[in-house]
């Protein structure tokens, strides 16, 4: 995913399904370097990781 699309998803009032390495995640924060984001697994609010935005994949929009 590119940084601009990640930013659109974060700022959207709609909910999107996003994955990292095949695992469903939430994007918590996009970093100023425009290359990384802090994410957490949808099922665990406590485990956060910093990942490359390019490795995020948009799956679909949740209705």
**What's the number of structural domains?**
1
**Radius of gyration based on Cα positions:** 11 Å
List low-pLDDT spans: none
CATH class: Mainly Beta
Named CATH topology: SH3 type barrels
CATH architecture: Roll
Question: Given the structure, what is the number of helices?
Answer: 1
Mean pLDDT score: 92
With strands numbered from the N-terminus, the spatial order across the biggest sheet is 4-3-2-1-5
Give a topology summary.
Elements: H1 3-11, E1 15-20, E2 23-30, E3 36-41, E4 48-52, E5 56-62
Antiparallel strand pairs: 1-2, 1-5, 2-3, 3-4
Description:
There is one protein chain. By secondary structure, the protein is mainly beta. The protein has one domain: Roll (SH3 type barrels). The chain is 14% helix and 51% strand. It has 1 helix and 5 strands, in the order αβββββ. A 5-stranded antiparallel β-sheet has the order 4-3-2-1-5. β1 and β2 form a beta hairpin. The radius of gyration is 11 Å and the shape is globular. 14% of the residues are buried. One of its GO terms (biological process) is asexual sporulation. Its main location: other.
State the gist of this model.
The protein has 63 residues and is mainly β. Helices cover 14% and strands 51% of the residues.
Task: Give me some keywords for this one.
51% strand, SASP_SspH, 63 residues, mainly beta, sporulation, five-stranded antiparallel β-sheet, Small, acid-soluble spore protein H, SH3 type barrels
